[in-house]
Amino acid sequence: MNTSSTADIAFLLLCYFLMTTTMGSQLGLSRRLPPMPDQNQKVEDQKVNRRNIIVVKINSSDRILAGSDPIDISQLKDKVKEFLSNPAGREDLPERVPTEIEGYGTYPVSKGVISLQNDRGTSYRAYIEVQNELVKAVNELRDDFARSAFGKVYLACTEEQQDIIKKAVPQNISEAEPKDVSKRR
User: Fold this and answer.
1) 168, 107 Cβ separation under 8 angstroms
2) d(CA 4, CA 152)
3) Given 3-state DSSP classes, what are the helix, strand and coil percentages for the chain, each rounded to the nearest 5?
4) Torsion angle defined by CA atoms of residues 74, 129, 82 and 75, in that order, rounded to the nearest 10 degrees
5) How far apart are the C-alpha atoms of 115 and 117, rounded to whole Å?
6) What CA–CA distance (Å, rounded) separates 114 from 134?
7) How far apart are the C-alpha atoms of 20 and 5, rounded to whole Å?
8) Burial class for 13, CB neighbours closer than 10 Å (0-12, 13-18, 19+)
9) In what order do the strands lie in the sheet with 173-175?
C-alpha cells in the first residue's frame, strides 16, 4: 500500500493549522519605563531620607515584610496608604513637601517611596498580588484626592485633572533585583 500521499496530507494540514491559528500573547504588568537619559547629563546621587522609604520584602515562602513588620497580604494596602498619606504628620513616616501644582495650587506632596524586594524563590502569584496591592493603595489615594479636589473618582476626571492628581499623589515604586537568599555562604 502506498502511503506517500498520507505524509503530504499531514504536512499540508500542519501548515494550514500553523497559518490559521493565533498564538496567545503573554500578558504582564503594564509599566511605563522612564525615558533614556541624555548622554551629556550628569549623574547625580540622590539621597533619600530613611523615613521616606518603606521596604516591602517577599521571601521564598511568600511571606511579606513591610518595614519591620511581618504582615498579611490583606493588610499591605492599608499599611502603604497610611505610610504614603501620613495623616497624623508622624516623624517616622514620609515628609510632605508643599509643592506648586500647575492648575491646582500648592499641595503637600508625599516624598514616600515604596521599595519592593523579593527572593528568587518567590512565587509569581505572590509577586503579582503584592504589586496589585501596592498599585491599589496608590489608586485609592488618588481617588480620595480626586473626590476632594474635583468631586469625582480619578478615572472619571479629565486628562488635565488626572495629570494634577498624578503630581499630587505620585506612584514611586522602586524594585530591587531579586536575591537568592537560600544560597548563604
Assistant:
1) yes
2) 70
3) 40, 20, 40
4) 10
5) 7
6) 8
7) 22
8) exposed
9) 69-71, 64-66, 53-58, 113-118, 173-175
Q: How far is CA 165 from CA 53, 81, 99, in A?
A: 21, 16, 13
At residue 184, does pLDDT exceed 50? no
Q: What is the DSSP string of 120-165?
A: TT--HHHHHHHHHHHHHHHHHHHHHHHHHHHSS-GGGS-HHHHHHH
Can you list the alpha helix ranges (DSSP code H) found in the chain?
A: 4-20, 73-85, 124-150, 159-168
Q: Which of 100, 54, 98 is nearest to 79 (CA)?
A: 54
Average pLDDT value for the chain: 84
Question: 23 in helix, strand or coil?
Answer: coil
Do 134 and 167 form a contact (C-beta atoms < 8 A)? no
Residues 66/80, Cβ–Cβ less than 8 Å: yes
d(CA 136, CA 130): 10
Q: pTM for the full model?
A: 0.72
pLDDT digits (tens, 9 = 90+) for 83-102: 999 888 888 888 888 999 89
Give the residue-averaged pLDDT of 171-181. Answer: 79
